[in-house]
Amino acid sequence: MKLTATSIMATYNGSQFISDQLQSIYDQKSQPDRVIIRDDRSSDDTARIVKQFISNRHLEKSWDFKVNPIRKGWRQNFIQMISQAKTDVIFYTDQDDLWHEDKVSDYLSCFSQNNDMEALVSDYSFIPKNQNILPMAKIPESGRDPLYKVIPNLFNLLIRRDGCTLAFRKTLIPFLKEVFQKVSTDSNGLPQSHDQATWLSALLRGSLYHLHKPLLYRRAHQDSTWQKEMKTHPSHFIEDVDENPNFLAYLKMIRHVLIGDHLCTTFANIQLEKEIQHKIADFSKLAV
């Protein structure tokens, strides 16, 4: 049976690049069955551009666009859209990237062939090609090229591919929301995000996979939502996690989820829980 898919996109003051992203979704070899877009009360032309794009292509039946009655912030905007998606697979979508035309078809093929897969990330290329703003980390994993299962370890407790690469099955949603609530801040001490919670929930369930194939162009620019947040809270972003007290709080919340939800039953998670215990003990020694 063919899997169904929804793209969810939170928009805010994205008029500069959003037309290209909308077009890249429309040009998919296998188009999403539904596209949900919620604008967080932009002060530029974003809402007008999206409305016009949908109207010009007569997409009203499958593309659902609304402007939020009040500003929610990008975290809540995404989390609330998750509940509105009813398809088998949900794709997170940034407003300023570009999808390769085979992104949806390649992802759905991976999900169809791997029943234990609940979340999937891919690689990406950058626009501009020689940018020095965004990294793309190497992920510890196991499996057969080009598809790998991401290993639950301390390094991978931090999200290693951004939300724009994430797609997940609707079966993950209850646990995703639980992690979003129980692990209430990220490793930098900032409020938990939809993509970090999705990555973490699938990692702890042993159902997170990584496809070694670039399937979108990631646009690197200083005006992105995340870059603005880093500028607003510079003291939260400490490169060495061993010197970041917020990472200790993050580990304790994850350990609580592992034990409380009886996820420490697999060998991988037993080892992960031990790693977390040791790291917490290391922090305690440093504090003395």
Key phrases:
37% helix, 288 residues, Spore Coat Polysaccharide Biosynthesis Protein SpsA, Chain A, Nucleotide-diphossugar_trans, Glyco_trans_2-like, ten-stranded mixed sheet, 10 strands, 9 helices, alpha/beta, single chain
Percent of residues in helices comes to 25-40%
User: Tally the helices: what do you get?
Assistant: 9
- The general outline is globular
User: What's the overall average pLDDT, rounded?
Assistant: 90
CATH topology title: Spore Coat Polysaccharide Biosynthesis Protein SpsA, Chain A
Sequence of secondary-structure elements: EHEHEHEEHEEEEHHEHHH
Q: Could you describe the largest sheet, including whether it forms a barrel?
A: 10 strands, mixed
Assigned CATH architecture: Alpha-Beta Complex
Which regions are unreliable across 5 or more consecutive residues at pLDDT < 50? none
The N- and C-terminal alpha carbons lie at a distance of 58 Å
Strand segment count: 10
Radius of gyration from the alpha-carbon trace, in angstroms: 19 Å
Notes on the protein architecture:
This protein is an alpha/beta fold. The chain has one domain: Spore Coat Polysaccharide Biosynthesis Protein SpsA, Chain A (Alpha-Beta Complex). 37% of the residues lie in helices and 20% in strands. The chain has nine helices and ten strands. Strands 1, 2, 3, 4, 5, 6, 7, 8, 9 and 10 form a ten-stranded mixed β-sheet that branches. Strand 1 (5-11), helix 1 (18-26) and strand 2 form a beta-alpha-beta unit. The radius of gyration is 19 Å and the shape is globular. The mean pLDDT is 90. This is Glycosyltransferase related enzyme. GO terms for molecular function: hexosyltransferase activity. Pfam families: Glycos_transf_2.
